[in-house]
Structures are given as structure tokens and as C-alpha cells.
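A favour, since you know our C-alpha cells better than I do. Go ahead and set the record down below.
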Amino acid sequence: MSSTLFRTKNVEQSIQDTEEPEHALRKSLSALDLTVFGVGVIIGTGIFVLTGQVAKNSAGPAVSLAFVAAGVVCALAALCYAEFASTVPVAGSAYTFSYASLGELPAWIIGWDLVLEFALGTAVVAVGWSGYIRSLLDNAGWHLPDYLAGRDNASGFGFDILAAALVLLLTAILVLGMKLSARITSLVVAIKVVVVLIVIIAGAFFITGTNYSPFIPKAEPVPAGGSLKAPLIQLMFGWAPSNFGVMGIFTAASVVFFAFIGFDIVATAAEETRNPQRDMPRGILGSLFICTVLYVAVAIVVTGMEKYTRLSVEAPLADAFKAVGHPWFAGVISFGAVIGLTTVCMILLLGQTRVFFAMSRDGLLPRFFSRVHPRFKTPHRPTILLGVIIAAIAGFTSLSQLAELVNIGTLFAFVVVAISVVILRRTRPDLPRAFRTPWVPVIPILSVCASLWLMLNLPAETWLRFAIWMVIGLFVYFLYGRTHSQLAVRGQTPAGQAPQPPAGNAPQP
């Protein structure tokens, strides 16, 4: 049994499966499309919200260094993703990569993790988008009833109709085709980047040098204790990261990491890329570089416009302009946030459906979901199913506490991909690699260590929820996935063993 749990699906078989007409996705994306997807999903809640929160509570003006630290962690992982996505251009991202290197059970675990990560991420962003829309409607004098805004009311019923409607609309767009999705994303991302550049350029004229002093505020240790909400590192080692000081920068980095979530989703579109060997590394690394530069610039400008102790937590960029007497920019920024969150939601939903599609094509989930639309060549069945489920979650549920699960899920995927790169280099050195991660195994090891460090800075409560979801996933795998896997159906021999000729058909001397 242990040998079947770690049976691997070789790269050649993975690529061959993508050529079956009923399960083949249309190849229509270029390097520019991939970069736009990456920028579209990365620039969102983080740049519009988290900057003020971490500056005020953890890092002060040094929040820009926290973005750099989080960007470095992502860059280490991005180098590993780039090699895998160009070598194994198959939908599924980290799930597919781990199936080719670590084996079926680890692949299931990471796939199950990604399903949770992208689903919660989509719902959380949709709820945030709804909040911005309601704010703009309120300013215009239009007010939604409480029972349609997801708020508590006398009847006890509340449904966030805007959040649910957004998810359903984006679901329809994704069903109609990747090229349409790419065109809409390109337009929306262009508007969003212009808004960010307006913030940077206009805000630079209102910077006051004294607001940067002290650049790294004096450390204030977090009281030690056994609270479940304490960072896991505190419970394990008896000490807690500091608010402010040098350690405050790393504490902040574990929070602003949420702002970078998304570049890995570019890898889920590898199968729909015309030239993945060339374009996947460009899309992954290019989008990450662009967003890191923009994040650092925004952080420097905002903390220079207003003293970090007075920054707003809810809307730091908009309120910073109000503080310097230019409230008009606040409306522009709110509009940019609405636009930005729209693309984030769509691309998270895209990543979710591609992972689900890849798992169903491998038989770990029902194969019914692996058939593509005869005209649009999109995985319409999982897209519609997941879109409806996520719309219901976004409409009925407040997910503020569950949002941290998105962070831990992504970091866990980073660890798996980095390990997989090292393993596949040793087990399949013959594979053609259009892009090679430099300094293997040093870069993958650094990626693992950096990701684990940020994971340890997350609350223990987040780890507990993550563990519960993983246990549920194991039950699903052993009750269904293990016996319905295509490797089990085809009777593939366990990894590491040579296939044996059928009885009676042995070659004659």
C-alpha cells in the first residue's frame, strides 16, 4: 500500500493526457497575457489595505522593507515555479509538479490545499469588493437593504448579493474562454496600474521627511503567552516576534505576504500557453518584479505623506490624501480598489478551476469534471460548480478569520514546489528544461526555509484550521481518490520499479 501512495505520474504521461481531445484545453495565451494575469491578481487588497495596517502595528516606515522581504521569499519560490511550469506545461501548478516528483499522496495533499486556498481567496476578495461598491453607492445616495448587503438584521437573514453576483459573472466569463478572460483582464489591469501610478506620482509631492523618523521604530516585544492566536513560533519556542524593530519587519512580512499571493496562479495556465517553455518564466518572474517595485514605491510614499502612527487601517491610501487636503484622490483610489479586486477575484477563480480540472483528469476527483466544453475548450463543469459554491460562500459567510488560511496554503505550496525541483533534478536529469532554477539545491533550500519562517509567524489557530482541512482531505483520498486514480486504473507499477511483462508474453531467447 505504501508503494501505491507514492506512485508518480511521469512527465511524458502528464503531457500526453493534455492531448486527448475531450480533455484538451485551448492554447491561446502569450507571455504578455501571463504577465497581465500575474499583475492582475497580485495587485489587490494588499496594496490598498495592508500597507497601513502593518506600518501602524508592526514596522513603521520600514514597511517598505517588509514588502521587500516578502518579495524575496516569493522570488525564491518563483524561480522554482518557473522551472517546473516550463518543464511540465500542464494545468494544476504545484499539484501537477508534486505528482511528477513526490508521488500521488503528496500531490493529493497539495491539490486539496490549493482548492481551499483559491476558494477562500476568491470569496474573501469578493466580499471586500462588495464593501467598496457599497461605499461608492452610499456616497452616491443609493443604499442596499441590510439583508442584501450581508449585514445582520432583525430577520436574522443576510446575503451579500453583490459578492455573489460578482463571482457568478466572472464564472460566466471564464466559461466563455481564456482569450476573452485575458482581454478583459488586460483592460482592467491597465486601469488599475494607472491608479497605482497616480498614487505614487501625486503622493510624492506631499512627502514630509520627518514622517520617516524613526524609520525603524524601537522594538516592543509582544507579551508571551499560550493563546491559540499567538504565532506558532511563540508556542513552540517560548518567545514572540517583536512589534517594530528589526523583528517587526519580519512580522510585517508574514502579513503583507498576502499582498503577493497570486503569481503562482500563473503556473496553473501553463497548459493554455502557446509557448510555455519560453513564456511561463517570463510571465511568473515579470509579474512578480513589477508588483514588488510598485508595492515598495507605494509604501514609501504613503508613510512619507502621513506619520505611521496616524495611518488608517481600513483605507490608508485614500485617507492619506484626505490628510493632506486632497480628498478627490480618495475617490480615485476607491475606484482603483474596485477595479483591482475584480481581476484578483477572477484569476483566483481561474486557478481554482484549473487545479480541480487537473485532479479530476487524473481520477482523484470524478472524471465527469475533466471534460472540456466542445466549443469554448474550457473546463466548464468544474468552473460552474465551483463558481456557484464560492458565490454562496461569499454571500452567506464572513471570512475575515479564515483569510489567513490563504497565506498558509500558499506558503505550503511553495515548500512542496521547491522540494519537488530538487527531487526531479535527481530522478529525471534527462528532461529538457527551457528554464533552470539557478544554484540548485541552494535556492530551493532557501525557499523552503523562508516559507517555513513566515508560516511559523502565522497564528496557531490558523495551523489548527489548516490541519482539520487536511484531515478531511485524507478521508476523501482514501475513500475515493486512491482507488479511482488513473494510475490505479491503468495498473501502473509503483515508482522506482520497472514494469513487468505480462504472463505468457515473455520474450523468447
